[in-house]
Amino acid sequence: MYVPPGFWSNEKGDIDVIVHKGMIHVFYLCVPSHDTVGHIVSSDGLVWKQARRALRTGEPGDFDDDQIWTMGVFEMNGTFFMLYTASCREEAGKVQRVGLAVSDDLYAWTKHAGNPVIEADPRWYHATRDNTKRVDWRDPKVLVEDGVAHGVICARAAAGASWNRRGCVGYFTSTDGIHWQVKPPLLGPGAFYEMETPAIFKLGSRYFLTGIYGFDHTTDLPVPNVYRVADRLAGPYRRPHNDLLLPAGNMVFKPCQWNQKTLLFHSLRGIGSWPGAEGVPVYSLAPPKVAEATPEGELILRPFRQWDIMRADTWQEFADAASTCDCESASPDSFHWTPLPQPYDHFIFEAELSTTNCPEFGIAFRAEPDGDEGTFVSIVPGRSLVRLYTLKRRFKNPNAGVIYGTRPRHILQENFCNLTPGAPCTCRLVAFGPYVEVSINNQVLISGMTYVHADGRVGPFAEGGRIDSKNMRLLPLKPPPSVALSPIVVGQPAQL
């Protein structure tokens, strides 16, 4: 997890990723200014080093003198290309076009003299500015296959549906990375307002298209990233029954090939809950997920397991009997848990949980010994639901200035979980600074951000029934650098 340093921590926007000579390069939009493209580098996907800025907005009169938006980086014929969204002041930023920059090493970039290189074609796309509507032509991403660069982009169709449903994934191709041919949309219109930050990649014999499916302006929260699948690059792309990648807050998924695996890097958005960042919007780069496809074409996210560089000790094994929770003789809704003997802050915890009659169970962590205050991973098999929530005993209402004795569950994330009641499940919890990740049966379902509680007890819990834990083990992790937990402090690049 990477949080850029600075007065505020919301400087990292949309991303793209590319691997070269074993090194992972992430380029990111700097927000809210939209004036530069940042660059960080990693050899392991977890610890990042800041590199020089890749691009800046142009001089007055240039096509990119207003703002730079999301970029797409790819390699072709030994040269690195960066397509980037830009707007100009003369048009009040209302028309988006795509410019090009080239590099030999991913560090020094030169803008193409013939910019812009791609614009919305009015034959298929809305391409004319008026008093109320801008020209959407942003977030380019490229897949190179058989010597052809295939680009996708967030666009709007010229006609064919109501305005709120004209969102589409634009499509363009090139054989040299410089000259591009705009083609009809790859997906849409007719179903959505827009598909932001689209990305296309291949797994096995199928092609997957991901993107942010619109935006909820009532809550100012992004709609979760979704995906579509096709048997051919040109489509048609179909919508699976469960098209959700991860819950809201996880966004802008970008693929890369690393160590014979397809990794999906993505942004994680949340509200800071730790000293120095309380109430501050935080935009971070989450640890990657491993993408796999089922034979039926379902996209599954597996946990990234390269955490050895962060380990503080060896795996600690715990006896099965120490984790049995039994509430059968108490109230049907009673809570009981069996914490491990000592507190932990940063760790990976794994266990096989099984129950025959427990309606809700899971893992409490960073919790007080009585379990009244802490952070919880809750599994409700009957609802096919997994949740991440916190409990606090005392909290203050900022509007009324009243201190209450107990705060109800504050749900941070929830996701669907295909579990059969009574069937055992393997749970994996990563708690590393503010970052929290939950996997059930080797599938990542929760990727969130909270640090309300720290250095507490860990263990399985049950509500209204009995749960047994087997193969419990815990790997202590080194604490992240302090600058990452206090993003208001200006310092070295945060490595979280």
Poorly predicted runs are 482-496
Count of domains: 2
Fraction in helix: under 10%
- CA(first)-CA(last) distance: 5 Å
Helix and strand composition category: mainly beta
CATH class bucket of the largest domain: Mainly Beta
Give the overall average pLDDT. 86
The overall strand count is 37
In CATH, the architecture of the largest domain is 5 Propeller
CATH topology of the largest domain: Tachylectin-2, Chain A
Q: Largest beta sheet, briefly?
A: 7 strands, antiparallel
User: Please, how many helices?
Assistant: 1
What descriptors fit this protein?
elongated; 7-stranded antiparallel β-sheet; 6-stranded antiparallel β-sheet; Jelly Rolls; 1 helix; 496 residues; Tachylectin-2, Chain A; mainly beta; 37 strands; 2 domains
Task: Provide a short characterization of the protein structure.
1% of the residues lie in helices and 49% in strands. The chain has 496 residues and is an all-beta fold. It folds into two domains: 294 residues, Tachylectin-2, Chain A; 166 residues, Jelly Rolls, CATH 2.60.120.
Q: Can you describe this structure?
A:
- This protein has 496 residues and is mainly beta.
- The protein folds into 2 domains: 12-305, Tachylectin-2, Chain A, CATH 2.115.10; 312-477, Exo-inulinase, domain 1 (Jelly Rolls).
- It has 1 helix and 37 strands.
- The strands form 9 sheets. Strands 23, 24, 26, 33, 34, 35 and 37 form a 7-stranded antiparallel sheet that branches.
- A hairpin with a 2-residue loop joins strand 1 (12-20) and strand 2 (23-30).
- The longest helix has 4 residues, at 482-485.
- The model is unreliable at 482-496 (pLDDT under 50).
